[in-house]
Amino acid sequence: xxKEMNPDLDPESIAPTQSQVGEIFDSKxxxxxxxxxxxxxxxxxxxxxxxxxxxxxxxxxxIGLGVLSMPKVFDTLGIIPGIILLIVIAGxxxxxxxxxxxxKLRHPSVxxxxxxGKMLFGRFGFELFGAAYTLYWxxxxxxxxxxxxxxxxxxxxxxxxTAVFVAVAAIIAFMFSSIQxxxxxxxxxxxxxxxxxxxxxxxxxxxxxxxxxxxxxxxxPEADYRLVGNPSFVDAMTxxxxxxxxxxxxxxxxxxxxxxxxxxxxxxxxxxxxxxxxVIYIVVGTVVYYYCGSHVASPALGSAxxxxxxxxxxxxxxxxxxxxxLLLHLPAKHIFMRFLRGTRHLTGQTMIHWVTWLGSTFxxxxxxxxxxxxxxxxxxxxxxxxxxxxTSLCFQPMGCMWLYxxxxxxxxxxxxxxxxxxxxxVFMIVSGFFLTIxxxxxxxxxxxxxxxxxGGSSAWSCANNDV
Length: 467
What we know:
By secondary structure, the chain is mainly α. It has helices spanning about 10-15, 50-60, 70-75, 80-105, 115-155, 160-175, 180-210, 235-245, 250-260, 265-290, 305-340, 350-375, 380-395, 395-415, 415-455; strands at about 30-35, 35-40. The protein has a single domain (about 45-375), classed as Hydantoin permease. Helix 7 packs antiparallel against helix 11.
């Protein structure tokens, strides 16, 4: 029911007017948002991410030191199949990311992928997608904490116990992940993305200048790159899952577009992000693998010697910190929204607002820290969680989203274009299930193999993880 307007009031006197700085409004009410509700003067304004900030956030959810896993992917698959599969998965995830923007514009009340699950599958989908989303980002955030500890060890020559470095990383992550809005966090995303890109290109250029694999026992091995590989099914699926994980920022794109100032500019940011990320993956993977072959160092930043490794980690450290901050901010914001959405405390600067927000960030960071530090096979477990959850959140839901919006209207006409789009959505759903099942199987086999060979690491280990 529409509210009655007092005819004695001048409409312009009650309309919100924007100030010169573009953030504070003269009227009591700033805006009414389908997700964040009524935002008043002095409240937290979540809807303030520019399209350039959106680009940085998208890039940072996807690109990290994982880009240096591409040489191993190419070693398994071969350069030609590796590049082809990378482009195919890039195209599939780009479509998924595009669907996020389309679905958000059609359904403004959608904040996260759990809301999509509720629309598609009811309460069960809401809880399932929400749990998968939270678990996935906690594990990837924990992996980022370990990456920071590797950087500290590399720069300090293992100056202290690794468990201390992980704790320091967790403290940094808590302090900065408590920044409330993605708009304020976008500058960290720009800094982090730039630092990671510089670091990986330092290594790539140095490897090209070096012209050979890193020394092994004082001996320089021959580069043994292959144009076409001959992997087993498990090795091939592990490599494909790795590619999927490097594009698995899709679940976070719902949250990013929800905080955009102008969601209509979402596709501009997405195009820049996907092109830049794909070019970097191909260039870095091809160059490093061509010169190093199967002898690429692990971590790959050491492929051009100790000095270059330290320089690269020096540049990468701010980027790794930005990764941990953003990846842990996302599940914390998810929990915060679950508690306060639909209440005045969501945007109002109340005690409940701050206790809930800081409690959410502290809890998420602590869980990530405990999981990363206490599980003996954590790195393999991250691969398992990624294969099980990342692909499930990047492919199947988007095919279902298109069908949800277009099945009934198109079924009446059944045009050729509609039939082809339905076929594409079915392909996305089926291929997503295949990648999930096959990738999970490969990860379980890999965990079993790794545990038999090394027995895993000890909990809260002091051992140097930069080896």
